[in-house]
Amino acid sequence: MSNRISRNISIILRSERLIAHRHLAVLRRQTGLMVMALVVAGIGLVMLNVAGFFALEEIMTPAAAALIVGIVNFALAGLFVSLASSKSGVEEDIAAVSEVRDMAIEDLEAEMRQAADEAKAAVDAVKTMAANPLGGIAPSVAAGIAKAVVKSMKSKE
Question: Rounded to an integer, what distance in angstroms lies between the CA atom of residue 126 and that of residue 34?
């Protein structure tokens, strides 16, 4: 029983570690994409802003050209943030590990219930023996006495 308990605890800990590693990998990926988005957005934004502003300035007023360039900048930033924050496949990746962990927890709970039942039965047996100390050993003692009497009678004959 203790082997099953330690095995289940080991499975639970390993499962939790695998889940944490997967979440950490997703977080690293998201952070990398976010940094990449910021660098690209920073460089590209400066170039696009200058080029867009000069192109739009010929068609409209400088204020309207700056407004359009700013709106496009915000749209690009929103796109990069949404790409970086998507959790593509993390639930599918950890589903099997979570299932194994949950099975180990259920098995561990069953083992604990069984151990508690066995402990309760032992306590009940001790209480019964304390209430009637000869009740549990009387049949075996009586059999021993009977054998001794029969043996003694045979030896007298």
Answer: 66
